[in-house]
């Protein structure tokens, strides 16, 4: 096992009816800005429930944080906060709203041009405004971690940052709030959580037995609940397990003491930035091809994955690995998520621009061995045509 | 899944050499009291390493916290703290030293007779001194939770308390520090972690898929590393996995959103209080008999346990359950831990006093259904003769 430093102070209030707890979770004297994405929280009553729980506290709303939250939009929230002396932020939405709120929380305290927060991956964040979240979409895990991804539209750049200052103080997770989500978003959430898990699991063995088994627990649960979450949207327990699995996939527990490989995410980010493909779909495109490309390096863990997650025990090493990758890809497709670039009307002519973007963003040595250079990324994208 | 509230702000610094981090973890201007158990930390160099990392900070030492920390001893530490204006506590040792430090931290701030902290199970704790820990014995999980058990010798009472104010700020876990532990303590640690896990898992199903699989992950890991930890004490990875498993067994994660059954612990506590049997050994005595006694209520989870943890798939329900309980008992025995009261020279004549103690401490409705009354506890103890 590798050495690690684990810290996660976010409080989770999980279950039906937990939004009422905001009355105690948010400081009594807070001046609150509620940050929102599209109109769904307004339409389905979640916002009303939140406002009721906040009671007499002064409340403002900031609407329109995009699915891939943009620096341009978020900086408007920062200006609003300064004008109105807001002192507590409450994200109500999915991972994008929470990611956006993290950036706003850090940018409001940042001394300098806040784009630097992303250019330095969060290293220069020294403090942030306090905030909490009400999660409505199980997917990114942002509700219980200190990471965020922000897009700067004008530069077509999508960059991550991390800082211990941007853990949510609390997150409220009510599975009922996911009942009205479109199927497409639920399917995206399943894939997002799945790939978060593989990025921390499908590398090379370091003898981290708990972390490996925990990761396998999450993957098996996603395989079990994913299709049910699409088929029976109002099954509380299915949605509860999906929601908690997605949180656990990126709250630091399975990633402590093991190597990571965020190459699928980094390559995927460029597909979103250039072609506006849903984040999870970019992961479904990249992962199978990446696993085929890195089969040799990842051999031991792929064999473990084949046996423990997919119960594949027949055939030689190569056959078992291939079968596991195929099952992974078929699982994504079963959720009606295309796993080829051609499903999104992209072909070989689009590869150059994608690789150029990777170069621009310094993504030239990805993967757990830093061996995925630009040529390898091109080959992985080509493998996904 | 049941609703839950999860919060665990303890930072974990895990791995060889991490004690050096105390230099940053402890506030620079702190006046530190180091709390110790027996002489092992002094003998094996751990204390020296700790003192070196603390550097120029004013340091005191408080020795002699017992394996079952006593109110009588701990109150001396409280008096010392007040006399010397100590403002930070550092527990160096196993679960008993950390449990004791939690009580000291709460008692030093307590307005009233600190025994009330235990009489009210922590409900009246409104604040506590800040503290951290350096763990030397993997077992109790105290390094990453807010629970503590304290014995009052004069009353032969062993009582637990919990409070969000007594989470360690940090815990340093260096597996190398466990190399010199006696086999007996390692075996105890394996059993302690195992039973912590079953107390949160072997109840009734509530569809908590992640929590169940995580619990099974810990049990399987203990079954795998337990014997190796005894056979090859200096295998870093074995000790690392044992150490992290024991922490994960009681840090709140597997217990979130599921029913609990702490009956084995509560009955076991009386065995320690009256007959001074090691805590883990009392669990090994009580658990198999308790599972046999509650087979009907726990049927569904026992069947899941048989299949997923012990790979038992042959035979009818009863046979599979019996086999799983037998395997559990044999596992404890394989670690040279006696699972019968007779192994500790106790017989039927000792049962009355044990049951009386349970009554005195209000332990009259134990288990996940509060159905283990005094008669049931007597039957469980009798089943363990």
From TrEMBL, chains A, B:
Keyword Acetylation: no
Domain Fe-containing alcohol dehydrogenase-like C-terminal: 187-358
UniProt keyword annotations, A-Z: Oxidoreductase
GO molecular function ontology, one term from the record: methylglyoxal reductase (NADPH) (acetol producing) activity
One CC-aspect GO term: cytosol
Family: Belongs to the iron-containing alcohol dehydrogenase family.
Protein's name in the database: Iron-containing alcohol dehydrogenase
